[in-house]
Amino acid sequence: MRTVVGFVLLGALVMAGCSVPQEGPASGPPSIVIGAGQEPDNLNPILGYAPDGASKIFDGLVDRDAKLKLTPALAEKLPEASADGLTWTAKLRQGVKFSDGTPLSAQDVVFTYKSVLDPKVNSTIASRYDPLAQVEAPDDSTVVFKLKYPYSPFDQTLTLGIVPRKAFDGQDINAAPFNTAPIGTGPYTVNQWRKGDRMVLKANEGHWNKAPAIKTVTFVYITDDNARATRMASGEFDATVLPPRLAQTYRDKSGYRVVQNPSADYRGLGIPSELPFTKDPKVRVAINTGINRQAMIDTVLAGAGKPAATPISPYLAEWYDPAAKFDFDAQKAGALLDEAGWRLGPDGKRAKDGQPARLPILYPAEDSLRKDLALAVGSDLAKLGIDAPVEATKFELMLQRQKETAAVWGGGDPYDPDTAAYTLLHSRYSGQPGYVNMTLYKNSQVDTALDEARKNLDRAARKQAYGDFQKAFIADPGWAFLVFLDHTYVMRDKWTGLEEQVEPHDHGMVHAVWWNLEHWSPK
User: Fold this and answer.
1) Among the listed residues 185, 180, 184, the one whose alpha carbon sits nearest the alpha carbon of residue 200
2) Binning pLDDT at 50, 70 and 90, where does residue 14 land?
3) pTM attached to this predicted model
4) Three-state secondary structure call for residue 255
5) The pLDDT of residue 27
6) Rounded Cα distance, 408 and 404, in Å
7) CATH of domain 262-485
8) Superfamily of domain 31-238+494-522
9) Is the backbone of residue 354 left (phi > 0), alpha (psi -120 to 50) or beta?
10) What is the dihedral of CA 329, 332, 334, 340, to 10 degrees?
11) What 8-state DSSP symbol labels residue 168?
């Protein structure tokens, strides 16, 4: 039945796409309408909005180019580290103003970072800045960051957007009007935000770099993949993000282009470490060995992805170990389950001491890609004799049930292995709230390797530590990482200036194929 429905939908999209009228001559300032799959909770960098840059509304001290190389932004040149790695100094670019005309000051930078670290604020990105001990401004154009220990990728964290401290005078940061009506230094300003519907951005004509050629950007928020595909086909959008199989319906269609961008964005099955069935590392290795990742890539992703085994993607080439993998072998997986005492019964189901081998799998209801991955995993596990029912739910419930169920999570970035793996797998984050160590995973060898890699400034030593981490994780996996996605987009073929960039997990308003939208022009 699911297959029939899928063909009907694809056929409808093809017909709808063919019926879109050709555009006449452009009139008025250039604008673009984007169908986005994710809506931000707020627009305050302190509270976690766009910490990796590309925010459209804010600038960080640094930015990234198409090759992910750090470039100066609000800093006049790249921040410099002291010989011991404990002090980083940034000099601010002169003449920068916020969109309300207020000049940028080093005190704004200090306020931004101190607020992230403030326990009263309880920022969702505070854990990213664990190495930071203090930030100060010796003068209006100099910012000095002092670290608790050497942390070589600290400059990668300086993409965070800077806010004006005066906007928060007498305000509770978590409830400030700024959170929905921000003031930034970025290439765009927020003209309107109707939550649950759309956000309209206007070009910041006074931007310190260059005013964008596209003067109005409208993001329309639709979490349902099929609804987004239908509205793209009807001509409502100039661009949207779609799962690979839906995007393929636009291949070779006149007036459209399909963009497939590489990413370090993983989808993985978070396996609860405290569940009686999965607390044995041998069972978790069996689960990893019994999952056919390549079949998922070929079918669910229509070829748009790569197999995953750890959160370190192949795009982190210096640190990635290609030997850290799980080869699909259902027979070997079954033998491992037998060794662990989970044996097949006459009904084809496994049990141990009268307890069934059961692993419920949750996924967020509106995400069709995660649904298909969850079903594929459930099918593979069922073939091993594991009862793996699949259930749609919400992210909040996935967190609440993290001790008793597996869940299909996503994350990852191509910037540094520390930001990809540390908070996700280090035991110090086990039991902490939010999207850190959601599987309650604890492994002393993994901890040691991640700590060594985090605090060592020597690249060879870091490389060795990340090799040790990957080896230890494969022997005792806390997840079944499934795939690294290629992100796929459908666009009206009417823009120049697009550049491919390896993308992180976040590809809603920020990053995505429109990561450098401020540099696009109409054809």
Assistant:
1) 180
2) very low
3) 0.91
4) coil
5) 65
6) 14
7) 3.10.105.10
8) Periplasmic binding protein-like II (3.40.190.10)
9) left
10) -140
11) G
